[in-house]
Amino acid sequence: MSTYSILPFVTGLYLLSLGLFIYLNNRKSILHISLASVCLSGVIWLFSYTIMYSIDNEYIANILARVVYVGIIFIPITYHHFTMRFLRKTDQGKVIKASYALGLIFLYMDFFTNLIVAGANRFFWGYQTKVGYLHTYFLLFFVFGLFTKCLYNLYVSYRINTKNRTEVELNRIKYVFWAFFLGNLGSIDFIPNYGIPIYPVGSINIVIYITILAYAILRHQLLDIEVIIKKTLVFAGLFAAVYVVFAFFALLSQLFFEKFFTANRWIAMLPSVVIVTMMLRPLENFLLVITNKFLFQKKFDYKELLKTFTAEVLTVLDLDRLVHLTMDKLVDVIKLNSCAVLLFDDESQQFNVIASHNIKDPQVTLIRPDGIVTFLEQTHGYLLKKELRQKKIFIPESIQEIIDKLNAELIIPMVLHQKVIGILSIGTKKSDEDYTQDDLDILLPLARTLAIAISNAQLFVELGITQAEAAQREKMAVIGTLSAGMAHEIRNPITTIKTFSEFLKEKKDDPEFIAKFERLVPKEVEKINYMIEHLLEFSRPADYKVIEPVNLREETKEVIEILQNEMVVNDIMLDEHVRELPLVSANKKYVQEIVFNLLRNAIHAIGRGGKVSISAEDKGERVEMEVKDTGCGMSEEQMAHIFQPFYTTKMNQKGVGLGLYIIKQLMNRMGGQVSVESSKGCGTAFRLEFAKYRSV
Q: What angle do CA 307, 311, 317 make, to 5 degrees?
């Protein structure tokens, strides 16, 4: 082995250790396997160069130059696979498969053509890969392309989608981002492949990458493998301590026991055996305390747990975020191996897992006749496996099966008004400690408080659905009026069709008449169909869960088509300046309802005559739309209440006061904002801010 091969060899060993450690921790997890595969791909690259720097055989060097690129091809692929799994992007399955398929094509080109690898060059440190004609394109569009996509997704998840991430998740994303970003700087090793005699030192970046990942595993429970690290450290500490004690007494026995008591060396070693036996358990406990103190915080802070739930969890009104935040905070603060939140579903009459961490069966369900549910509902107490074992209480097989599926050590009911609305399943602690009475004194009241928070979130969801239904009813009432007004618009094309049909029998042999008939009648039919389709499409209710890329110009035109006749009838001029803009993250039906309500309000505020302006422009991170009218305007007192439910400024009671309230709720649900400027007698301007849609 040459001096120059030491750096890639040591780095390869370091990377191999991390990869094996991750893989052996959980051989069934795709997340673990994909990250271990990233490490293995790097090992192939580093070990191949280790050999190339140490040999003088050009033939073998040319073969190894191609083996190097087996690792280089699959590093970005496995890295992309890991990142998508890590960020839970389940919609990227086809992209992941496509990257592997492309990797196989590059693998064929690597071994059977000279397009990517053309052999090996000799430098002062040893052989280095020589690039082929397509190497630069392979490097820029495939390797750097996948790296950039992954880093961008990590950045977006950390900086933009923060409201959907817990603090624990954000810390993990941050360390994964920097580990891969700094590790990717090792790409400077491609420089000598182009014939430039600069010794490749990119291996140092791999050391940085491994160090950051190891730190994230230790301090931020990345991949949840800290327990193995802890046990390894404790075992290593015990082994070292026992070895030192035996070595000490071996020396002491030669100097003391053999001189004063006995010449038999084995008898002289007996005191060391006794002392080691006596100190083994205290030493293990001491090492557990030390490792927990500096890495795992054996005793969780009750104040931290209460503060976390009060400030970050219990005030959340989004049900999905509430349960996931609850689970993440419990796992993070108490250091749990597993956790699950189950909620009762009225429709199916069973408890379903809504959020889970490291449980065997996330699809497990509990129905009311189940033994666990019956026990919790009758006693409103908890179920702790340790107590059951101590009291030698027989656990029926059906209950034990559910406990095993949930990886549960402690099961607590979430009770509201004497009814169990949910179940909190908590696994063992990573510190291997048992649950104490102090733990129960905190967790039991916390579960009851959590039941109230979940109930509030469920009511909020129901309120949102009720609001959507109210908006739909109001919209349908307006559409009833609009459909009557559209009769005038439909009558014109019907008159044209009727006229042609009356003369058809008489002029069927007139070529000019037939040509005109074929040109105009289908066009008039299409016009009628177009208006009816628009009205029907607009009347359909929205799926309140869908957030999608929306073209504001298209949706605005849809609404204007519906309201255009009413504006003409009321002699209102429309000034529309909504040009092509970046897509926004919204719900198409919501956008239509919002623009519809604002334009209708403007028409009512103007009465007859006047002008309505609607415009939109790109404002950097957001797109802003403005709907402005020359109507009667509002006073400051009115403006203070307009977004409240059932408040209306329409004294003739054309509305029920839900329009603007619903607009605000819908904008909030889409992550946008609505604001208003107005003064009495000078018109009103509503501004809508939409977040830009970012494809990932």
A: 140
Is 297 or 30 the better-scoring residue by pLDDT? 30
Look at the pTM and tell me if it is higher than 0.85: no
What is the edge-to-edge ordering of all strands in the sheet holding 573-578? 573-578, 611-619, 622-629, 684-691, 673-678
CB 353 within 8 A of CB 359: yes
Q: How big is the CA angle at 42 (ends 37 and 46), to the nearest 5 degrees?
A: 150
Q: Is the pLDDT of residue 458 over 80?
A: no
Euclidean distance between CA atoms 346 and 369, whole angstroms: 15
In one letter, which amino acid is 537? E
Interval 95-129: pLDDT, tens = 888 999 999 999 999 989 999 999 999 998 889 99
- Residues near 9 by beta carbon (within 8 Å), at least 6 away in sequence: 1, 46, 47, 50
What are the distances in angstroms from CA 364 to CA 90, 182, 341, 354, 407? 21, 41, 11, 10, 11
* Residues 6 or more apart in contact with residue 625 via CB below 8 angstroms: 552, 556, 578, 595, 614, 615, 616, 687, 688, 690
* Calpha distance 663→690 (Å, rounded): 13
Cβ neighbours, 10 Å, residue 139 = 17
How many beta carbons lie within 10 A of that of residue 365, not counting itself? 14
- Strands 350-357 and 339-345, bridge-based pairing: antiparallel
Burial tier of 124 (Cβ tally within 10 Å: 0-12, 13-18, 19+): exposed
Of 105-114, 293-302, 321-330, 332-341, the least confident: 293-302
Residue 625 has pLDDT above 90, yes or no: yes
The average pLDDT across 655-677 equals: 77
Calculate Rg over the CA atoms of the chain: 35
Residue 7 — φ and ψ, nearest 5°?
A: -60, -55
Q: What is the mean pLDDT of residues 396-401?
A: 77
Domains by residue range for the chain, with CATH: 3-224 (1.20.1070.10), 228-296 (no CATH), 302-462 (3.30.450.40), 546-696 (3.30.565.10)
Cα(455)–Cα(593) distance, rounded to whole angstroms? 29
Nearest alpha carbon to residue 337 among 219, 429, 216, 221 = 429
> Residue 464 has what DSSP assignment?
H
Residue 23, Cβ neighbours under 10 Å: how many?
Answer: 17
Contact 479, 539 (CB under 8 A): yes
Q: Please identify which residue in the block is written with the tokens 């600069």.
A: 198
Beta strand 573-578 with 611-619 is parallel
Task: Report the distance separating Cα 696 and Cα 694, nearest Å.
Answer: 6
Beta strands in 496-655 (DSSP E): 548-550, 573-578, 584-586, 611-619, 622-629
